[in-house]
Design goal:
The protein is globular. The protein is mainly α and about 270 residues long. Helix 7 crosses helix 8. The protein is built from 14 helices and no strands.
Length: about 270
Amino acid sequence: MGATLGVSTTHGTGSRLSWAASDSWTMTRRELAHWARQPAQVVVGLVFPVMMLLMFSYLIGGGRGVDGDFKAYLVPGMLTMTMAFGLEATMLSVTQDLGKGVIDRFRSMPMNSGAVLVGRSVADMLQSAVGLTVMIAVGYAIGWRWHNGFASFLGAVGLLLLLRFAMLWIGIHLALVAGKPELVQAVQILVWPVSFLSNAIAAPGSMPPWLGAIVEWNPLSATATAVRGLFGNPGADGGSWAATHAELLAVTWPVALIAAFLPLAVKRFRDLSR
């Protein structure tokens, strides 16, 4: 097994950091190999957010409290919501490895203890980058445009992927806590209210004051508002502190979530064999 995966068997051939990076890349390649064996799962993960975007744009409608072109408001919001969707695939993969004893076998090998989680996270981020590229292309195809130049465009993409990275570690931690694939679906249900309780498809000003306040402080709302600003798309988010400091919150929220859940996930992983 070690020869197949290319797992490091000695610590003396390089620094601890390079050893950890090598093991993490081995685990990343393992996760990427699943794409070739399970292409349907990858395709569904890419198609689902596209369907959501097209449905809200052409069928369901929305945009309460939004002035002007709704697509210019909707597409950045849907890009943000996409960063919260699809975590069930990562969570299921983690719980299935736990149930099959795969992780226990990895832990018995002379490899960095965090390589399994890092490999999983890197593979997920690569898939998220592909999905984000597809969504941006579809948004462009239906008439959405950004207006603030390439540097701002890259900044918006960076904020979206930062949010995804934070959501990913929340998902990994919850998967390790759940431990069983059948419990993942119950946890995944929580993603929907959190996602829709944001300003992705409707402005907080169109909601009851108490609900609008909750929506404005949602981490997804902060990213959506900041991304709209960087893209040069119109927003209808009012003059609250959260709305006027959206870029600050779009960085602070994910960093805080990563700082909280990444160590918790690593600790939970290390405690599995105790």
